[in-house]
Batch of 3 targets.
Target 1
Amino acid sequence: MECPDREYYPFLVVLFLTLLALVIFWPVLDMVVLSASLAVVLMPVHHRLMRSVPAVVSAAALTIALFTLVAAAAYCTDLVLRQNAGLINQIFGTIGTWLANPATQPGAFGVSISKDTLLFWVAKGNALFVNYWATITANILLIVFKGLVFFLSFFLFLLRGIALRDRIFRHLPVQVRSYCELLTPVTVDTLYVIYIVQFAIAALTFVISLPVFYLLGYGNILFYSFLAAFCELIPILGSSVAFIIVGAYSLALGDLRGLLIMVILGYIVVSALPEIYIRPVLVGRRVKINPVIMFVGLIGGLLTLGLAGFVLGPLIIVLVMKSYRIWTDERKGSKEPQDAGDDGEAGQ
């Protein structure tokens, strides 16, 4: 007897092999995922440019523009960090000296983490914000390779993304293809709102950090606010990193007032509240998902998938919820004609 769902076998095999490839090559494919998501967001701009220039010229122009924007942001960040190198060295030096001092004991402040672990984190922060050129040089081949993969993938997704999507859809089973077509609009909406909210939260962090660091009284208000916004813009860091660093600096100086300001106003108000409430609400409202579920997707994606989880976490949650709604709507639709038929038979 022939199985009625035999057409699904090749699709399931290809799906399994694709997932296997994603797992094996994930250290590189995270750049492909990010480039694809960004290409989807900028696709309308690409289509508008194609009215005046060929597709390859439009895709190349957007890729060059994106590279220029990233390079300019990197240059500005390097400039700010170099101009404040003395202050950053002072911060990490003070924290390191305080931790290395036998007279200081983190446990006295309720910190249950060992000194060795804290010193390791300080070394990581020093490598990221002070000796970042040494860190970049040590990983230059990986950075260049990932950069090439990202920008080349971005260019190709702009140029051939629609054709690739249509080709994939054409070979899908009919029922699967109909589901994918229904999920496409919500996928695009989700990607739009993820990127827009990310930049909006970073800008908000900079603005509301200004009065917090003014109250702190250490000066360099613009730099500290920039540091918080910069960390917020990088999903795997978050503005909490900046407030933890400055809070640890306050503790090392013996400034308990400054530590309380960093914990209450910095960590809780500026860093935690936007992540727990504002971001999930903004993203969830656009795609009609409960903010709590969206928050789980955001945090879970970052913790399990790294940088790409910033996009994939919320997107997976949205697609699962949307798929469930489509399935329940189809179930209701299939029951209604059956119920109407039963009523007709009963009337006869």
Note: Residues 24 and 31 are 14 Å apart (CA to CA).
Target 2
Amino acid sequence: MTLMPASVVELCPAYPDRVAKYFKEIFVSDVVEIPVQKPSAEQIVNVDVKAELVDVQTVTVTLPFDPIPYQPNPGNKIFVAGNIYLGIQYSALTPDQKVHFFRAQLPFQTILLNDCGLLIDPHDSIFTSGYVVHVCIEKLIKRQIDERKMYFELLLLIWAEEIS
């Protein structure tokens, strides 16, 4: 496995400036609970979202059978893992201090492959010149379930950009 530099960019790729050579879209969702020491929520006021990559690796895979057409053998995958950090501001049901804040963490992981789920050719220039993995938060859905629970769903675009 090879470790490659990683960054977090919340701007989505725009051709020709940022070409998303290998990419994947994933949903990250969870129900979060307000910490017990905090009062119950009346409503969600604001959500601050940050993404962090914690592990980016090139994984070489040798298939144990004759490859299908166009399938390199051995071939590469790009493994990506990270966290989404939510800063949640809400109005409380208590009259003394109306606005409260807490943080939540949503982990994610995925594998970047070639088109049609094929392994990436290990001779691809992305592996010789290097690459940077980016995360784009395309959509955030938030919903209050009850006074103590909130539901969050994010659509992430994760892509590898070749370093030129």
Note: Residues 1-9 have pLDDT under 50 and may be disordered.
Target 3
Amino acid sequence: MPELRTVPLKELELALRVWRAAESGHPPAVLLPATGKTSSDWDQVAAGLAAGRAVIAVDLRGHGASSWPGEYGLDLLASDVIGILDHLALGRVDLFGHSLGGLVACLVASSRPDLIRRLVLEDIGVPHPRTPGLPERPEGELPFDWRMVEQVRPQIDNPDPAWPTVFDTITAPTLVVAGGASSPVPQQHVAELASRLADARLVTIEAGHLVHAAEPAAYLSTVTEFLDG
């Protein structure tokens, strides 16, 4: 079972789920979830990864047990993750990001390469402009702050022109895991991301957008081979 802990960052508290390594020897893995998902989304994969390394899954701001400050943005999310890594003093980590978490992971790897050994990006592509619009808010209580969607979604629909520079300055070896034809993410954009990065490998697991949840065994085997290779 994971240990639950929090990291204080200025006016925020960020919640983590921590799995201690069954056997040490590998750098810690830090896992960033997608929009609307919490750290528990990684439970099945994290338990497998923890056989050989410490694993830390993060509730991004506005999600789960982390603070819901009402102010959101991709840069703020990345700054929070950097704050966690600096606070925990883990050395260089293997950083995972799924969907929104993948974009955040790219910003972290670009701005603080000293913190990242390897990068795993799950079903994200180079952001391209798309028709603006918000999804309909689900009914009932949510495990995340809907204001986060309202503020971050426009940044994805109308991407910052600086994204190419972000990708061009990522030096960490990177595994890009694509979800294949059933994913709503344009797979040509995922391939474009892999080709843009300095040292990247593209692997497709035909599972749709939620690769680690839909095909956990294949995902775990693929990422473990990459991390330990």
Note: The chain is about 35% helix and 20% strand.
